[in-house]
Amino acid sequence: MSEKIKFTIDGKQCEGEKGRYLVDVAAENGVYIPVLCHWKDVIPAGSCRICTVKINGRFVAACTTPVEDGCNVENNTPELQDIRKAIVEMLFVEGNHFCPSCEKSGDCDLQGLGYLYQMMVPRFPYAFERRELDASSPKIFLEKNRCIFCKRCVRMIKDEKGKSYFAFKGRGKDLEISMDKTIAANISDELAQKAMDICPVGAILKKEVGFATPIGQRKYDNVPIGADIENLQKTNGGKK
Amino acid sequence: MSKPIVATASLAGCFGCHMSLLDIDERILKLIELVDFHKSPINDIKTFTKQCDIGIIEGGCCNTENVEVLREFRKNCKILISLGECAIMGGLPAMRNGIPVRECLEEAYCDGITVGENTERIMPNDEELPIILDKVYPLHEIVKIDYYLPGCAPRADLIWEAVVALVTGNELNIPYELVKFD
Amino acid sequence: MNEKILGIIEAYGRSPYRLVDILLSLQKEFRCVSDEAVNIVASELGLSEVDVRQTKSFYHFFTTEPVGKYAVYLNNSAVSEMMGMADVVDEFEKLCGISFGQKTADGLISLDHTACIGMNDQEPAALINSVVFTGLNRQKVREIVAAMREGKPVESMVTEYGDGNNAHPLVLSMVKNNIRKAGPVCLGEYETGKALARSLTMGSKAVIDEVKSANLRGRGGAGFPAGLKWQFCAHEAGDRYVFCNADEGEPGTFKDRVLLTERAQMMYEGMAIAGWAIGAKEGILYLRYEYLYLKAFLENVLEEMRNQNLLGKNILGKGFDFDIRIQLGAGAYVCGEESALIESSEGKRGEPRNRPPFPVQKGYKNNPTIVNNVETFCSAVKIIENGAAWYKKMGTEDSSGTKLLSISGDCKMPGVYEVEWGMTIHEMLRMVGAENVQAVQVSGPSGVCVPPTQFNRQIALEDLPSGGSMIVVGKQRDLIKDIVLNFMAFFEDESCGSCITCRSFNMILRRQVQKVVEGRAIKPDLDNMKDWGEIMAKTSRCGLGQTSSNPISTTLANFRELYEARVKDEDFQSDFDMEKAIAESCEAVNRPPIVHE
In terms of residue numbers, what domain contains C344? Predict the structure, then answer.
C-alpha cells in the first residue's frame, strides 16, 4: 500500500498517494488542472506547460511533479489563469488553427481551453508559417498545421515491435511532427482510431470520416473542458 | 439624446456574420430603438456622410479595397469591432497564408483542376480590380481594433449581448455557450 | 556504399544507444547522412525511419545533402560579429560566389554559420572540416579559399600552431590558450595521480565528505554542491556512471577548452576520484563536436593513464576498476543541460528530461549518474590533494575556491583567468584592460547584462553567478542589435522545442526585438516583451527556456533608455506595408503596382 498524504489546492483539502503525479491526484479530488500533453499512466512529456501550477511558491508542471505531503498548490489563481491563457493564445498563433474547417472542432482540447479562458483574440502576432499535410497513409491524415507538439502520438502509437509511427523532426523553430510513411502505410484501423482519439487537436485524423457529430452536441459545445472532473466529487458524494 | 450610430461592412468574409446579426430575430426591432444604422449592407448606404459611434466589421483584408474600407471605417467610427474569425485571424481565406500568392493565383486561374482552358495563362489584371495582397490580414494588424467577437459565425446572442452592453454601458457577462470559434 | 554503412553500424555493436556515433561516422564518410543511409540504419537497428531521422535532425552538424568537400562553419556569435565577422562573411561569399547557407556548384565549398565554437578570445573563428581557424580576416580568407581551390588538405592550411599542447602532434592546432592568469587550483602546479592515490587510501565516504566540506559547487553555472550530488548518487542502487560535461556551449565560454588542452589528466583523474567516491566503473566524457580537434589527443591521454594504471583494472593496485570513453556531441547547445546530455549519449535527441527522477537517481540507461563540469572535476582533484580547509581559504563564504573566467569582447587581453570568487566587475575590467565599457554580459546570453552602475558587484554564486563566460561590451556597440538580438536569435535556433513555451516564446520574442531594432516598435511592445519573457521563464521545463528571456529582461531593467529611444510613443502601430503586400501579386498577374485611392 502506498503512503497516503494530505495537501491543499487553492486552500481545498485534498488527499492522495505519495509519489503520484499532481495532475492525476488533483483530478481524483475533483480539481481540474488543464492538460494538453498529459495522458494518464503514460510517461509524461511535460511539453505543453499548460498544467503549470505553483507549489510552495515555485512554478512546476503538475503532470511531472509528484505530490508531497503538506504541500500547498496554487491552481486557479489569476496569475496562473493568465499564464495558461497566454499559452493557449501562443498555440493559436504559432500553428495554423482554422477552427471552422477543422474536423476536430467542438471536440478539440486546445479549442476547449480557448473557450474556458474566453480567448477573444490572441495577444501575440500570428505567424502563418507554411506547414505540410501528409496524406500518404491510406488510413490517416497528418495535418501539421494543427500540431501542438504534445508528443502523445510519439509516445503512444507504436507497432508490435515498438517502432514509432510518429516522431519529431528538426528542433526549435524548425520542429515538426513527422509520420513514418513506410509503416503508416499499413497502420491498423484500431491504431489509426487511437491515434486520432489521443490527439488533443485535429492534427491526426482518420480518413473517410469527419464532422460526424452535429454542432451543438459536441464535447465542448455546451460544457466547458474539465467540467467532468470538477463534477466528480458531486456525483461521488465526496466519497473516495 | 441622439441614438448611437452603427456602421457595418463585410470585407474578405462570407456575409455569414451579417446573417448571424439578423438571427437576433425580433430583437432587431429593439435594436433599431437602441441605435441608428449608417453605412451598412443592411440599409445599402454606401458612403460615410457622418461620424459613427460603432463600426462592426466582418472579414479580413485580402485585397487593397478591403484595406481602404477598413481605414475609412477607422476614420469614421469611434469604436471598431472585429466580428468573426475572418476579421480576427483571417479565417478560412487565410488558409492561403504561408503559400506564396503567385502559387495561389496560378492554382486558381491556370493549373487548378476546375480551371477550363487557359493556355495563355491569363490572370485577371484589369486596373479596376482590387489588388490581391500577399496574405489575408487580420484587421488588428492594419488598424486599431477595440473589441473582438469570435465565431464562425459569432452567435446571434453574442452579437446582441455585446452591442447592447456597449450601447447601454452595462457590464458584459458572456455565457460559456456563446464564445465559439466555429 | 551499403557495405560501408553496414561496417559503421557493426563497429558500434548495432546498438541504438550509439546512434549519434553512427550518424557522426556516416556524416564524416559521406559528408551527409542521406535518406537512403537513414533507412539502412533504421532497418539494421530495428527502428523506424522517423526514429532515426528525429535524432539526426536534432543536431546541427548532420546534413541530408552533402556538405562541400570543404565545409566551412563560421561562428556567428555576438563576439564574432563584434570582431569583424561581416568582413569575413563578405570575403567568403565574394570569393566563392555563393551566400552562407549554400554550396558551390562544383560541390567544393559549402558556407554555413554555427553557434559559438569556444574561441571567443580569438574571433572571428570557423571550423573547416572540423579544423579550427581563428582570428580570420579578409586576407586569411583569401589564402584559405585559394588553398581550397588548389585542393590542399585542410590541415596543411594551418601553418602556425598555438602554445602548449595546441602544438602537440595529435592536436597541431592554431588555437591559442591565452591563459592570462593561472590560479592555484585548476591552472596551478599539478602532479598526475597524487590525488587519486590519496583518495583510494581515504575511502569513498571520506572523499565525498572532503568535497562537501570544501563546498565545491558545480562550475557549469548552476552551482549545485558537487559533494551532495555525489552523495545522492552513491546512495542509489545500480551501475553508477560518471559523466564529464565538456559541452561548453554557452556563447563566450572557452575555459573548458583550455582545461581539455592543458589539464586533461587532471580532469580524468577527477572523474576517477568521483568514480571511486560513488562506486562507478565507467565514466563518459561528453565532448562537444566543436572540440573534435582535441579528440585524438584526449584518447591518447586516456591510453597513457591506462598505461600508468591510473585508469583501467585494479587502479594503483587498490582493486578499483574504472575506465572512461569519449562520447562526441553533434552540435546542440541544449546538450549542456545534464539530462539532455545523457539523452544524447544514449543516441537520442538531446531533449532535457522531466525531473524527478533526477540523473543521480535515473540517469544514463536509467542508472544513477553524476554529471559534472570539466572544471568541477579539476577542482576536486586539488581539494583531495590539499584538503578542504586549504580550498575554503579562497573565495567568499558561499563560493569557495577559484573560478576560471573566459573573458572576451572589447578588452585588451581576452583569455582565461583563474581568479578567486568574489572579484568585482571593476577589478575584472582593470585586469583585462577594458575601457569605455557600456556593459558586461556575465555568464553568457542566459546570464545578466550588467551596467556600469553595478560594476562593484562581485562575481560569486551569491551575487553574480557565472559559468565562466564574461563578455565585455564597449560603448561603441549597439547593445540591442549587437547583443540582445544576436542572443535571442541564438536561443530561437537552439531551443530543442520539446517544451512548447520555450520553442514559441523564443521565436515571438526574437521578432519583438527585431521590431525594436528596425524602429517599428511602440511603447506597449516593451511591456509586452517583459511580460511574455516572464511567462516563458515561469513555465519552461529546463534552464534554457527559464533563462533565455534574460537578454531582454536584464537589458530592459538596466538599459531601458536605449529601448525608449527607439520606440514610438504611440498606442497603436501597424506593420502593414501596402507596397510590400501587393508587390508579388502584381508581378504575378503583370499589372503595375499602383493603388488607386
Answer: 181-392
Identify the band that residue A237 occupies on the pLDDT scale cut at 50, 70 and 90. very low
Domains in chain B, number: 1
**Residue numbers of A between 38 and 97 with CB closer than 8 Å to C:** 44-49, 52, 59, 61, 64, 66, 83, 86-87, 90-91, 93-94
Residues C203 and C141 in one domain: no
- The CATH number of residue C80's host domain is 3.40.30.10
Tell me what pLDDT residue B124 has: 95
The grid cell for B24 is 437576433
Give me the mean pLDDT over the C46-51 stretch.
96
Which residues does chain B have within 8 Å of residue A128's beta carbon, measured at their own beta carbons? 90, 94, 97-98, 135
| Structure confidence at residue C394 (pLDDT) | 97
In sequence order, what are the beta bridge partners of C283? C242, C324
Asked if residue B64 belongs to a domain, the reply is yes
- Cα B53 to Cα B3: distance, rounded to the nearest angstrom: 9
CA C297 to chain centre: 20
**Do C320 and C455 belong together in one domain?**
no
Question: Smallest Cα–Cα separation from C259: which of C363, C388, C374?
Answer: C374
CB-closest option in B88, B150, B177 to A222: B177
Neighbour-count burial of A170, counting CB atoms closer than 10 A to its CB (0-12 exposed, 13-18 middle, 19+ buried): middle
Tell whether C15 and C123 lie within a shared domain: no
Q: Which residues of chain B does C587 touch, with a Cβ-Cβ cutoff of 8 Å?
A: 102
Q: Which residues of chain B have a CB within 8 Å of the CB of A125?
A: 141
Report if residue C535 sits inside a domain: yes
The single residue listed with the C-alpha cell 591518447 is C300
What cell was used for C554? Answer: 536584464
Kindly report the number of other CB atoms within 10 A of residue A68's CB atom: 14
A52-61: Cβ within 8 A, 24+ apart: A52/A80, A52/A83, A52/A84, A52/A87, A52/C538, A52/C539, A53/A22, A53/A80, A54/A79, A54/A80, A55/A22, A59/C538, A59/C539, A61/C354, A61/C539, A61/C541
Nine-digit cell string for C298: 584526449
Interface residue of A97, A126, A219 to substitute, partner B, most B CBs within 10 Å: A126
CB-based contact, B142 to chain C, within 8 Å: yes
The alpha carbon torsion through C587, C589, C592, C596 (nearest 10 deg) reads -120
Burial C104-138 (b: 16+ CB within 10 A, else e): beeeebbbbbbbbbbbbbbbbbbbbbbbbbbebee
The structural architecture, per CATH, of the domain A4-76 is Roll (3.10)
Residue C324 to residue C302: CA distance in whole angstroms: 8
pLDDT tens sequence across C277-310: 999 999 999 999 999 999 999 999 999 999 999 9
The answer to the question of residue B129 being in a domain is no
Residue A15, strand partner residues:
A6
**Residue B46 backbone phi and psi in degrees, to 5:** -100, -20
State whether B102 and C578 contact (CB < 8 Å): no
Closest by alpha carbon to B166, among B46, B61, B77, B67? B77
Strand duo C402-409 + C415-420: pairing: antiparallel
